[in-house]
């Protein structure tokens, strides 16, 4: 079974500007989503729930879209997320030691669900065989198309970053994935996961039903559904109304003359206030000088000239000598 195209299942789409993928990838890094699955089972809804988690963390973690390259559900349904179009955004590397793998030279495969024991509030799952095969098939197809190097590194997120991801229970099965990559199990190359295909298809048709698309108008194949979804998106973009030019034209011009008059008035008032302020400063300086002189006269401790003034005042007080 081929992975379900991004446009078919995504709700949020590409909301930012993810970098483009430049292959071939040197490694496939395995993750788990640490999300609870919906009940009754619906792999499309589960894939959308993971996208929603990434969407809520988009500001803090600079996510430009769902961060993984691919996602795989318990029933073997695989989903293209960034695929080989956009550079994966989940393989943050903070460890100094270990393989020299980064977002730019790897892809990421997220196992939908929680595969680590005792995580509060989240059920612990064991990877299913069909899910391990789906992950291996993604890697095998990537090698065949030249998007992944031959004999790539395959390992857990925890080899690059201080995290429990992809969980102990999935980590225990990585050897099996490697084995499936190197020795494809016969049934996946002949009969391709019919139940998973059916489940995924049902999910798609449910979405067309929910959107009110008449049964006769619904696509016959999954590929057709993918094309219809893309067309619907293009149509929606085409229907966005253009700018309301008449309304913009009807907005009256700014009253420039009135604004100019107000500006002139304000400038005049500002210069008057400036002049008043200068005069107040001058009066203040005069008063300060006068106060200083009064101080000197009262205490008689000023310079010589001041003392002679004090003397004159005393003389005047006594009167003209006989
Ligand atoms: Zn991870």
Tell me about this structure.
This protein has 322 residues and is α/β, with parallel strands linked by helices. Helices cover 48% and strands 9% of the residues. It folds into two domains: 6-238, 3-Layer(aba) Sandwich (Lysozyme-like), CATH 3.40.80; 256-318. It is built from twelve helices and five strands. A five-stranded mixed sheet has the order 3-2-4-1-5, covered by helices on one side. A hairpin with a 5-residue loop joins β2 and β3 (78-80). The chain is elongated and about 115 Å long. The relative contact order is 0.12. The structure holds zinc ion (ZN). Zinc ion binds next to loops.
**Reported CATH architecture of the largest domain:** 3-Layer(aba) Sandwich
User: What is the succession of H and E elements?
Assistant: HEHHEEEHEHHHHHHHH
Helix fraction, binned, reads 40-55%
The span between the termini is 135 Å
Q: Looking across the biggest beta sheet, what order are the strands in?
A: 3-2-4-1-5
Number of domains: 2
Give the overall average pLDDT.
Answer: 85
Bound compounds, each kind once, are:
zinc ion
Number of continuous helical runs: 12
Largest sheet: 5 strands, mixed
Strand content: 5-15%
Question: Could you give the topology of this structure?
Answer:
Layout: H1 6-9, E1 25-32, H2 43-56, H3 58-61, E2 70-72, E3 78-80, E4 106-111, H4 129-145, E5 148-156, H5 168-171, H6 174-182, H7 186-190, H8 194-210, H9 222-238, H10 245-250, H11 256-299, H12 304-318
Parallel strand pairs: 1-4, 1-5, 2-4
Antiparallel strand pairs: 2-3
Helix pairs in contact: 4-6
């Amino acid at each position: 079974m081929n992975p379900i195209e991004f446009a078919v299942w995504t709700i949020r789409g590409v909301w930012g500007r993810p970098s483009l993928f430049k292959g071939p990838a040197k490694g496939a890094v395995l993750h788990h989503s640490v999300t609870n699955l919906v009940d009754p089972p619906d792999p499309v809804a589960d894939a959308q729930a993971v996208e929603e988690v990434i969407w809520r963390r988009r500001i803090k973690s600079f996510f430009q879209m769902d961060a993984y390259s691919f996602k795989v559900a318990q029933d073997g349904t695989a989903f293209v997320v960034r695929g080989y179009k956009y550079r994966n955004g989940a393989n943050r590397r903070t460890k100094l030691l270990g393989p020299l793998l980064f977002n730019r030279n790897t892809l990421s495969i997220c196992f939908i669900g929680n595969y680590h024991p005792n995580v509060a509030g989240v059920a612990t799952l064991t990877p299913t065989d069909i899910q391990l095969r789906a992950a291996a098939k993604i890697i095998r197809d990537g090698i065949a198309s030249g998007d992944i190097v031959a004999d790539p590194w395959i390992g857990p997120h925890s080899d690059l970053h201080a995290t429990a991801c992809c969980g102990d229970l999935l980590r225990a099965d990585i050897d099996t994935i490697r084995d499936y990559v190197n020795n494809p199990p016969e049934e996946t190359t002949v009969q391709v996961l019919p139940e998973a295909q059916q489940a995924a298809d049902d999910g798609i048709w449910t979405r067309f039903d929910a959107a009110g698309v008449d049964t006769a108008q619904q696509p016959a194949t999954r590929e057709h559904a993918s094309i219809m979804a893309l067309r619907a998106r293009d149509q929606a973009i085409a229907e966005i109304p253009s700018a309301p030019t008449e309304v913009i034209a009807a907005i009256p011009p700014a009253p420039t003359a009135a604004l100019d008059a107000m500006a002139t008035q304000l400038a005049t008032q500002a210069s008057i206030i400036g002049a008043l302020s200068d005069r107040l400063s001058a009066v203040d300086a005069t008063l300060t000088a006068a106060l200083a002189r009064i101080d000197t006269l009262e205490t008689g401790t000023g310079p010589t000239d001041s003392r002679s003034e004090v003397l004159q005042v005393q003389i005047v007080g006594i009167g003209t000598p006989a």
